[in-house]
TrEMBL record, chains A, B:
Top-level taxonomy: Eukaryota, Metazoa, Chordata, Craniata, Vertebrata
Cofactor(s) for this UniProt protein: Mg(2+)
E.C. designation(s): 3.6.1.1
PANTHER family on file: 4-NITROPHENYLPHOSPHATASE-RELATED, PHOSPHOLYSINE PHOSPHOHISTIDINE INORGANIC PYROPHOSPHATE PHOSPHATASE
Domain of life of the organism encoding this protein: Eukaryota
Keyword Calcium: no
Molecular functions (GO terms): inorganic diphosphate phosphatase activity; metal ion binding; phosphatase activity
Catalytic activities: diphosphate + H2O = 2 phosphate + H(+)
Protein name: Phospholysine phosphohistidine inorganic pyrophosphate phosphatase
Keyword set includes Nucleus: yes
Predominant localisation class: cytoplasm
InterPro entries: HAD-like_sf, HAD-SF_hydro_IIA, HAD_sf, LHPP/HDHD2
Amino acid sequence: RIKASGLKLRFCTNETQATRENFVKKLQGMGFDINVSEVTAPAPAACRILKERGLRPHLLVHDDLVPEFAEVDKTNPNCVVLGDAAESFTYANLNEAFRVLIGMEKPVLISLGRGRYYKETDGLKLDVGAYMKALEYACDVQAEVVGKPAKRFFESALAEMGVPPEQAIMIGDDIVNDVGGAQRCGMRALQVRTGKYRSVHTLHSQTSPQEQI
Amino acid sequence: RIKASGLKLRFCTNETQATRENFVKKLQGMGFDINVSEVTAPAPAACRILKERGLRPHLLVHDDLVPEFAEVDKTNPNCVVLGDAAESFTYANLNEAFRVLIGMEKPVLISLGRGRYYKETDGLKLDVGAYMKALEYACDVQAEVVGKPAKRFFESALAEMGVPPEQAIMIGDDIVNDVGGAQRCGMRALQVRTGKYRSVHTLHSQTSPQEQI
C-alpha cells in the first residue's frame, strides 16, 4: 500500500543472520515486493567502516552472514565484529572473541546492532546487544554500533532516498532500535504491536512513539 | 605463613564451579591447610537470601555447584540464580534463563559474583559478570550480586572472624572484586601479581591497592 501510494520507501533492517540477497529472497517468498537495492543493513555498513579505517576483523557473526565480509582482510585481526551469531554464540566462540579483544592494546568492538531480544517461532531469543554488553563489560570498552538505533544508519537511509528527516516516518516494532533511533535523527516514528511488542516496555521506556498501530 | 603467625584467616572465594567441599578438597590436594568452615563462598550466601525472601530459583550455574542448592525449592521459579556455568553457558541455556526472567512481572536476577574474566591453563575465560551484564541488558534489570565485591559478603567474612574492617587486610589478584570490594568495606587491600594480573588494568582502574606484591 505504501508503494502504491507513491511514497518513497526504504527497508532498514538489523538483520545479521543472512546476506541481503538471502534476506530479500526470504521476504520475496512471503510475497513482499522488495529488492536488494532498497535495503539498508548493518553488514555492508560495517564493511565500509572496516575499509575506511584499515581494520581487519575477527568475526563473531552468523555463518550465513560471512559472505558479506568476503572482500575484507581478516588476517591478524585488530578488531572484533559482532553480529547475531545465534547458534554460533557458543561458550568457546565467545571466549575466543573475548581473547582477541582483550589482547589488543586498544580493543575495538564493532557491533551490528544493539537489540535486546527478538521473537522466533520457538520463543524469545537474546539479541546481539546482550552479547555486546558481555564483551564490553569484560574488556572495559564501548562498542561502536552499526545499524539501528545509530543515527548514522538512519541518515544513510535518508540520504539514499534523498528525503530530509522531518519528511520521513519510521515504522517498526522496537521501541529503542526503531522508534528511539529514528526520533533522535529528527524523524517521526510509528510503533506496530507485533510479536515482540509488549505494552510494559512502552511504559518502562523513556521513548514514546508518535503513534502505535 | 599467615596461619603460623597466629593471625586470623578466612578464605573469601567467588568460586562457583564447585561445592565448598570439592573446592577445599582441591586446595588440600595442592597442599593447602584449609577446611570448609574457613571458607566464605557465594552459593551458601545465595541460599540464605533465597530462603529469607521465599525465592525459588531457576539455576544457570555450573553442574558441580548444583548440590549447594539441594535444599532449595526450584519449582515454578520466581528468580534466576546465575553462576559461572562455564560449558553450561550454551546458547540454549542462556536463552532459557532469559525467557524465565523476562516472563516475570518484576525480574529478579541474583548473580554469584561479577568478575569480568579469569585465567585457566588453556587461556582467559569470560566470568559470570559478563553473562550477568547480558541478562541485565536484555531484561532491563539490575542483578543483585552475592559474593565479592559486595560489601555484605566481606562483612559476613569479617563477622565470622570477629574482626573489624580496619584491622583486616584483603589479599587478592582482582582489582575490582578483591581490592575494590574490600576497600569499600573499610579494609586495606593488597594485590598479588598472579596470572590474571595485568598492569594495564591498574592504570585503567579507578581503584588502587595499598600495595602490590
